[in-house]
Amino acid sequence: DAGVTQSPTHLIKTRGQQVTLRCSPISGHKSVSWYQQVLGQGPQFIFQYYEKEERGRGNFPDRFSARQFPNYSSELNVNALLLGDSALYLCASSEGDRGFSYNEQFFGPGTRLTVL
Amino acid sequence: GESVGLHLPTLSVQEGDNSIINCAYSNSASDYFIWYKQESGKGPQFIIDIRSNMDKRQGQRVTVLLNKTVKHLSLQIAATQPGDSAVYFCAENIGAGSYQLTFGKGTKLSVIP
Questions:
Q1: Hey, are the CB atoms on B2 and A110 less than 8 Å from each other?
Q2: Do B1 and B42 form a contact (C-beta atoms < 8 A)?
Q3: Average pLDDT over residues A41-52
Q4: Has residue B4 got a pLDDT over 90?
Q5: Which of A6, A62, B7, B25 could potentially form a cystine with A40 if both were Cys, beta carbons 3.0 to 4.6 Å apart?
Q6: Is A97's pLDDT higher than 70?
Q7: Is B18 helix (H, G, I), strand (E, B) or coil?
Q8: Burial group, residue A37, by CB count within 10 angstroms (0-12, 13-18, 19+)
Q9: Least CA distance to B103: which residue of chain A?
Q10: Is residue A59 less than 8 Å (CB to CB) from chain B?
Q11: In terms of DSSP bridges, do strands A19-24 and A31-37 run parallel, antiparallel, or are they unpaired?
């Protein structure tokens, strides 16, 4: 079975541009979470979506937005890119939204975004 | 792949020895804790978890200890192998149906053959 897939693998943008990152969850998983991992640090929670609704949001500016589609795939959008947005963006998927255990949440390999 | 281990505390261990990785968590309200392993170029991989009503949990070659009094977690890896070389993160969750995880800074484990 395919795991969580993310595209693109790598991306280079310049300051002020906009970027869209994509995530396909494991088949049957309805929840997607997004994390930002700056080099040398642990991942930071950005969003969680379940059944196309936002269920949680971390401490990120409004330049960050996301959505989930009927097939449960998700997009993360970042507007007006700053140098500090350079990071690995991770997507994680889970089957449900309540009563779960984290051994049921799986991370994708991430998208490496570089802002010049 | 690009390393995620730059600027992280490093623990070097001889192959076959036991490893202990420590973590201080931040929120006294957290009731669920997880250890993740992250290899270069990959996303975090679940290792073991523990709930706040426990102080010890064992898996295959791994043990997690929780001390809520001092908000401290540790991960013990028995008979460390070269394949254990990676960056290890602890993460905490407040429960109540939230998926939000707060990750610690991470420790890079290097196994010396």
A1: no
A2: yes
A3: 92
A4: no
A5: B7
A6: no
A7: coil
A8: buried
A9: A42
A10: no
A11: unpaired
Taking the C-alpha atoms of residue A76 and residue A68, their distance in angstroms, rounded to an integer, is: 9
d(CA A24, CA A42): 22
- Interface check for B26 against chain A (CB to CB < 8 A): the answer is no
**Token pair 């939204």 is at which residue?**
A97
The token duo for B18 is 């036991």
Nearest Cα of chain A lies from the Cα of B56 at a distance, in angstroms, of: 17
Other beta carbons within 10 angstroms of residue A92's beta carbon come to: 26
pLDDT at A25: 96
Which tens digit of pLDDT belongs to each residue from B23-67?
999 888 888 899 999 999 899 999 999 999 999 999 999 999 999
Joined tokens for residue B41: 């170029």
The whole-angstrom separation of Cα B37 and Cα B85 is: 9
Residue entry with tokens 């963006």: A89
Look-up: residue for tokens 């990120």?
A60
How far CA B112 is from CA of A8, A110, B37, B96, in Å, comes to 35, 28, 18, 42
- Say what the alpha-carbon torsion angle B35, B71, B54, A93 is, to the nearest 10 degrees: -30
**B23 secondary structure, DSSP code:** E
